[in-house]
Amino acid sequence: MDIRLAIVHMRLRLGYRRVNMRKLNKAFMEARDVKGAEIILVPAYPLLGPVIGYYPEQKARHYMKSYAERLGGPKESHTISVLSKLAGSYGVEVIGGPLIERAGPRLYLTAFHIDNNGFLKGKYRKVMVTKAEKDMGISSGKMATVFQAESGLKIGVFMDEDLFSPEVFRYIQFEDPMIIVGTMLPYDSDYIKSEMLKGFESIKTMNLDAVKSLLWSRALESGLPIVLIGGAVESPTFGVDVAFMPSIVTDPEIGITDRLVKGYDDLEEVFIVEVDPKISRARKCEDSCMNVFKNLCLKELRRKRGLRRT
After folding, report:
1. Any idea which architecture 3-309 has in CATH?
2. Where do the structural domains in the chain lie, given as residue ranges?
3. Contact assessment for residue 83 and residue 61, using Cβ atoms and an 8 Å cutoff
């Protein structure tokens, strides 16, 4: 039986929590009640929008601290709290992120998985952190992650710059997922150029040819469909869009076709991707993939032993 995943291709208003909450509530209602989705994929920074590269440096540093959320414990993340209520109300699972996570003195960019009862089931801290993110105090995560849905569907996750790391995707591949999903809004990349959206003078995007090429490469390597969740970012000051990324579904056999890309004219749309767990399977990991996986595990083991000695 196919499992239906709903992708929320929406416009986020920077810093306007209530506006974004209303949009998410409407999207959840459509995804579940109209389109019968079991899992909903939400865009990056779903309540407040992105920070780095969207505010002047001094303001960005302030917002990094004030927007940082704790995941788990008595002081629950506001984003997780809101999405947990939506997940429980509609009986759906939610995957999204990143949000800015505070863990002790460290900050991470963290993706999350909420089950259909509204409980935080898993999280993934972004591994490939950019120079701009490091300069803002973001720490790198240690390991790639695969979320497992209640239906048994295993979902690999990534965030923007992770796309440039075959090692991240090889680890995901080793965990035998059935689909890989990730988020990207225009950002200050160490590898890829930004540019203006075709037909617009003031809306920033990324080099889409390069992004599509990387998505197809990762789909071919893993043998899996890859979903990139994009969207638009609206300035709260001027009420105009300042950034946009398409949402893209990449098929490992046919690549990327126009019908698999949701563009600027499709904003505020909820669209469905169906996955058959019996058919959608990762390619078997070769020796090179196994070696990468073993090296990652050894590094993590050494790190933990080092922490114990201190």
Report:
1. 4-Layer Sandwich (3.60)
2. 3-309
3. no
